[in-house]
Specification:
single chain, mainly beta, OB fold (Dihydrolipoamide Acetyltransferase, E2P), 11 strands
């Protein structure tokens, strides 16, 4: 993801408001699962890769534009199903250099 001098960051998931105290250049964007939600949508940009049952909800791994995300949802979804991702507005958490826990 790249942060520019403009008001928005360019991310693989589309433009996002740029944090006030962020220097231009490449960054890693940490998306916390509590800010993500998904719903079944045949026209959705994401696809369910895996599901882990967690009692009253499930944790899904989805692929969206080549990015793998972990999302909790109560809606029952099937592996391979198309989904729409919603990212709740929040202050982004950015790292200048990729944190060591990110898989390449």
């Amino acid at each position: 993801m790249t942060v520019s001098e403009q008001e928005q960051m360019q991310t693989p998931l589309g433009p996002w408001p740029r944090p006030v105290h962020c220097h231009p250049g490449p960054h890693w964007w940490l998306l916390r699962p509590q800010f993500l939600s998904i719903r079944a949508d045949e026209q959705g940009e994401g696809q369910v890769l895996s599901q882990q049952f967690m009692g009253d909800s499930s944790r899904y791994t989805i692929d969206i534009h080549g990015q793998k995300l972990s999302v909790h949802a109560r809606e029952p979804l099937s592996v391979g199903e198309r989904v729409r991702l919603n990212i709740r507005a929040h202050e982004p958490v950015l790292f200048n250099d990729g944190p060591s826990f990110i898989e390449h």
